[in-house]
Amino acid sequence: MGGRHKLSAPSCRGMSSPQSVAVHTEAAPAPVGPYNQAVVAGGVVYCSGQIALDPASGQMVGAGDVEAETRQVLANLQAVLAAAGCGPRQVVRTTVYLTDLGDFARVNALYAEVFGEGVSPARACVQVAALPKGALVEIDAVAVLGAVAA
User: Fold this and answer.
1) Kind of pairing, strands 38-41 and 44-50?
2) CA–CA gap between residue 12 and residue 83 (Å, rounded)
3) What does pTM read for this prediction?
4) Which domains does the chain have, with CATH numbers?
5) For the segment 10-52, what is each residue's pLDDT rounded down to a tens digit?
6) Rounded to a whole number, what is the distance in angstroms from the first to the last CA of the chain?
């Protein structure tokens, strides 16, 4: 291979890109790191993972009860979605992180109360070794502004 190879990234000059807007609400816990509760770009809402933090105190809710944690996680996620101008029916994708897949049925039942009507979002559910603050469950979401699942 005697030829010279040059790798280059495509230029972004002249291309339009969607403006990103950070979403913040006091009705959901402040981020525990250098990220936003959600970012809106190109009409899509990218929600960071929510754990069972109480928005007012910043303390974990549930004391190890996965159902209590899941209720708080879903409330936090719905608050972020509302601040972005949408709700559960606009969610098209979620990821559920569990520290124990044995909790799947209990988490899934509560998840269905929020996301079970109309077209449910595409979803992945995975077991992880650990979550921030010792949480048992975390859920993130992607929603499309203006879209409503039938």
Assistant:
1) antiparallel
2) 31
3) 0.87
4) 21-144 (3.30.1330.40)
5) 334 444 556 999 999 999 999 988 999 999 999 999 999 999 9
6) 56
pLDDT at 2: 46
User: CA–CA separation, 77 vs 142, rounded Å?
Assistant: 11
Whether pLDDT at 91 is above 80: yes
Assess whether 12 carries a catalytic annotation. Answer: no
Residue 141 has pLDDT above 70, yes or no: yes
Concatenated DSSP letters for 93-104?
EEEEEES-GGGH
Q: What are phi and psi of 141, to 5 degrees?
A: -150, 155
Which residue matches tokens 């995975």? 126
Q: SS3 of 107, please?
A: helix
Report residue 18: phi and psi, to 5°.
Answer: -65, 145
